[in-house]
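Pilot study result, target chain (193 residues):
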Amino acid sequence: MFHFYAVLSRMKYINRWGLMRNTREENLCEHSFETAVIAHALAVLRNTRFGGNVNPERAALLALYHDATEILTGDLPTPVKYYNPEIRSAYAEVEKTARKKLLSLLPADLKPGYEAILAANGESDRKLLPLVKAADKLSAVIKCMEEKGAGNSEFAKAEVALRQAVADMHLPEADCFVEEFLPSYQLTLDEQD
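Predicted structure:
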């Protein structure tokens, strides 16, 4: 008996934004789905508008699994995770151990396929990882926008910092997403018609 998929299904129990007051909890499963959709969109934008040649489906897959280790580690808040180089390095080791544990939950013949997803270190993946990182941050921006829209000012500074982090990535695909698609997230369903 192998537990990999059952453990992955527990993403829905890992809540994000633990240090902040939320009007609506966001779990890791929701975040991973949204990040995958956005990563796919960024890859499509790169190929369609910016002369790229990347695999949008692979971008979506990498994004879908980008936080899978948090099933075992929990969601360590960003201010803690990046507080100093020692903590950052220690957390990288914790993530590496969690990746190994997740892979140990698979039969031997399936491990290589998932190791390539969880480690994401191939040449083509290195081209996609900045898009996944941008999608991760954009998903967080969307959460901040939703919270602000619900009257929760707790997320105002986080939104400013995350928008700046996306801009600092200098990815034309991400800038395009921010300009053309992000404003819609502030609208009601009727306004999106």
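One observation from the pilot: The domain at 4-192 is CATH 1.10.3210.10 (Hypothetical protein af1432). A full batch analysis is planned for the follow-on phase.
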